[in-house]
Prior knowledge:
309 residues, alpha+beta, Chromosomal Replication Initiator Protein Dnaa, Chain: A, 2 domains, five-stranded mixed β-sheet, globular
Amino acid sequence: MARPLRVEFLGALYHVVSHGNGKLWLFKHNDAFYMFLDILGTYIKKYQVIIHNFVVMRSHFHLIIETQLPNLSIFMSQILRDYAIYFNRLSRRRGSVFKSRYGAFLVQKDRYYKQLTKYVFYNPVKAKVAETPYEYRWSSLYYIMRNDKRIKWFDHKISLSLIGSKEDLVGLLDNEDIPSGVEVVYNQFIGDKKWADALIDKNRLNEEISGSSLMEKGYITAEEIMWAVTQKYKIAQEALLRGEHKLAAMIAMYIMNVHTPMKLEELGELFRLKKFTVAQRLWRFKKRDLATSRIQKIIKSLEKQLLKR
């Protein structure tokens, strides 16, 4: 049986779910949950993706995603690969971390979106890891209801944009007449059949619309980043790439990771490092150095300079 094609277009709304390979527990402790959310935060900025809601379980995760460009496949491949690298290094293992293909279901906005939101938030209750959906820590609902802003990239207003207010969200979740489940049409659409048929007809001539060319527009180039950083620290480009000034090299690598289409392998080739080393250094930099106000100011200044070009 053929796999369902990926339909990607500007402004698409998806329910994305991905499970660990076999019986793997993807998220064994708090640091693992935070790492996954940090990776999400990096790439939503890079690929202009909007996360409406999320629930991260031990063995899988759910995302409600809106894409401003037709680039869901690119976005998800980066997320899954980066977390897999982290997981394997932490667990001292090799091999696949996620199942071969994540699920991506196009969502019709209106009541289907509301049903999906309820379904996603009730996952911890169904899994018997929480008595109510409000108390599960690794759900966006937890941060919405507490106005908790520890997940800095998560925007409560976006989450509530198609629901209404917090009171409306509580009403949705507590209303027993609204099912906490969804029906999927053609194994790919969460909505009514007429809407699904219209989307299929619209995308028939281009089975999977690639966002690569669109995404390249507006990106900062690696060359521009290297020039800005070497000017800031008054060092030669070769010295930057050799890592002679460690902070400058990490700042350049971080900005490239956020603002260019470069993959970890490409960053590794540029800085003469293995991709695993790149992933590890970026993780340490974000966890330790990026938390300091001095580094934040330097990066914001460089981004402002580069984005004005």
